[in-house]
Amino acid sequence: NFMLTQPHSVSESPGKTVTISCTGSSGSIASNYVQWYQQRPGSAPTAIIYQDNQRPSGVPDRFSGSIDSSSNSASLTISGLKTEDEADYYCQSYDSSNYCVFGGGTKLTVL
Amino acid sequence: QITLKESGPTLVKPTQTLTLTCTFSGFSLSRSGVGVGWIRQPPGKAPEWLALIYWDDDKRYSPSLKSRLTISKDTSKNQVVLTLTNMDPVDTGTYYCVHCIVGAVDWFDPWGQGTLVTVSS
Asked: Would you tell me which residues 9-38 of chain B have a C-beta closer than 8 angstroms to some C-beta of chain A?
């Protein structure tokens, strides 16, 4: 089964830049687009990146997405960290049969 | 503005069938390029995609749950219904209804507020 692996947690200081990785278990992660969702405590997830590196309307450009085929990974980079960015982040993509798969999530602490 | 809201029981007994209704506004499920899906999230865990129905009535189900799931739509009522049979305590979690944007990739935005379903005798 295709899996997406994320670090369990990351932490960084306000104003800094943090990168969260999402590694595909098999195949090429570049074969299917990757999305990223932010989930603040007690709230539903919201989309912050789709199609690898596209931002939905209203998402600040502090959020960016990229793909690294050499490591079979996608990355979410958040620059100029704010305390409001403290949340769980989930990557999402599709397996070879085009079924939706979510990563295990990364808890971002901004301290 | 697109909104979705889930409704249904908060507590179900093991072996029962769960029926959830998603009532949405701000878009039409008869419009090309649109879908509505269901995603659940066990407490403290990652989301898990369950099912998706498209504007043309095409349906997709999670392979691991396909035998237990049914998704349907009522375009005139702006509703999508999900049924999950033979409920088990491991099915406990928050169930989200999501608007699906169909394009080069299907992605989900926005999500409903979610409804917590507990499976217990």
From this structure: none
B85-114 residues touching A, CB cutoff 8 A: 96, 101, 103-114
pLDDT digit string (tens) for B48-101? 999 999 999 999 999 999 999 999 999 999 999 999 999 999 999 999 999 999
Other beta carbons within 10 Å of B81 = 17
DSSP state of A8: S
**What is the secondary structure of A27-85 as a DSSP string?**
S-GGGS--EEEEE-TTS--EEEEBTTTBPPTT--TTEEEEEEGGGTEEEEEE-S--GGG
- Residue A63: HSE in the Cβ half-sphere, 13 Å Cα cutoff: 22
- Most distant CA atoms of chain B, gap in Å: 44
**Chain A to chain B, count of Cβ pairs less than 8 Å apart?**
59
A77 to chain B, closest Cα gap in Å: 19
- Give first-to-last CA distance, chain A, whole Å: 36
d(CA A83, CA A85): 5
Provide, as residue numbers in chain A, all residues whose Cβ is less than 8 Å from the Cβ of B52: 100
The pLDDT of residue A26 = 83
| Backbone φ and ψ of A83, nearest 5° | -60, -30
List chain B residues with CB under 8 Å of A51. Answer: 103-105, 107
